[in-house]
Amino acid sequence: MKVRIEEIPKITRNFARPARTRVFKGGRGSGKTRGLALRSALRVYQLAEMGVEGVFLASREHLNSLDESSMEEIKASIRSQPWLADYFDIGEKYIRTQNRRISYAFAGLRHNLDSIKSKARIIGNWTDEAENVSEIAWRKLIPTLRDEGPGWYVENWVSYNPESPDSATNKRFITQKADDCLITDVNWSDNPWFPGVLNEQRLQDKRLRPETYDHVWEGAFLTLTDAQILAGKFEIEEFEPQPHWDGPYQGGDFGFSQDPTAAIRCWIGDGRLWIEYEAGRTALELDDYGTYIGERIPDFHRYTTRWDSARPEGISHIRRHGLPKSEAVEKWKGSVEDGIAFMRNFEKIVVHPRCEKTARECRLYSYKVDRLSGDVLTDIVDANNHYMDAIRYALGPMVKRGFNYGMLGVV
Q1: Which of 165, 257, 273, 292 sits most deeply, having the most CB atoms within 10 A of its CB?
Q2: CB 14 within 8 A of CB 69
């Protein structure tokens, strides 16, 4: 029998290659849970037709009831394919093949795994919501997944939304990736059936909750902590500069091989700081600054732009190559801290949606955290700060003069 199954292309590509471990990670709306639920039914069908007997484990770290399991997702996936629905016997609290060779087992890895091992042969595992599975649980599970027979072996599937690089799941399957492990990042943009109602929520989160957008929708680690310098201070929104606003103010940060060159145009008005344009990339030659930035920030050459004073030779060069109003920003002891305080005193920092790199740095710009105590320190992490530095340089004269915030409309 031949049937055509429609599924997310990235899932198809992963299963097209042999592997003992398959990892699927990403954000909301990716369809990975429904996709793997269907794949589990296909795997069970395949093995049962080969005469294999045992249980396919659908697991999580803790499972107090079937309501917390993947059972309903698997049932829905089976019922979506009439030929699979005919092949399986689905009850209120069980799923098994009609020939009784294979059944699903739903278990918590910490407390239920031993009882399942003592009763049946585990012929496959899918752990959903695996971000918080502990190393102890993985150490209990992995040794049980070594069985194999003619033409098949036990596969371990892991799906989750990443949260921390320090999680046991990330360390075991990503940082310490084994040779027989295939990793697939799958997000909303990879889902051909991503529903419109979810897209409305996604766009709303991107505009109103940019601090967590990448984590929720793009599969990035969750970075919203007390260490975030601009947490709760910025939002993403389209705007047009108003006649009564002050500005524009422009700033730039030099970069080249590892760090990007970053340039910014911003405005001050109505108690807010408005980030209108950005331009930047790595490996940008000084000779090309004027052309490259000018193509991305209209009339950039017409306005004064303040650059990092640590590169006077660079400023001299770009003055002669298309950016004549470039000058060095004044620095002083504590200028970084003063600049951050100035930015945080605005009612809100509004980032235009086209400034994606700036928005990302707004999310990630952070203070250091003590490794042992978890205390937030006063030192700033030397990363995700290139566009932030450009903004500080643009605002440098006002920060230095200690502007009266009331004069700027800042409450």
Answers
A1: 273
A2: no
For residue 279, give the nearest of 267, 271, 289 by alpha carbon. 289
Tokens 């407390």 sit on residue: 111
Residues, the chain: 411
The C-alpha atoms of residue 288 and residue 157 are separated, in whole angstroms, by 48
pLDDT value of residue 411: 46
Second-level CATH architecture of 223-401: 2-Layer Sandwich (3.30)
Residue 47: closest CA among 121, 158, 145, 123: 123
CB-based contact 391:343 (threshold 8 Å):
yes
Closest CA to 247 of 399, 408, 411, 410: 408
The position carrying tokens 């502990």 is 134
pLDDT tens figures, 130-183: 998 888 889 888 988 888 888 899 999 999 999 888 889 999 999 998 889 999
The amino acid present at 239, given as its one-letter code, is F
Least confident of 31-35, 105-109, 292-296, 299-303: 105-109
CATH 3.30.360.10 fits 9-190, yes or no: no
**Under 8 Å between Cβ of 137 and 109:** yes
349 three-state secondary structure: strand
Task: Evaluate the CA torsion angle 70, 76, 80, 86 in order and state its sign.
Answer: positive
pTM for the whole thing?
A: 0.67
Residue indicated by tokens 């399942």: 116
What pLDDT digit, counting tens, does each position of 355-392 carry? 989 988 998 888 887 767 778 888 888 888 999 999 99
Q: Where are the domains of the chain?
A: 9-190, 223-401
What are the structure tokens assigned to 376, written together? 């937030």
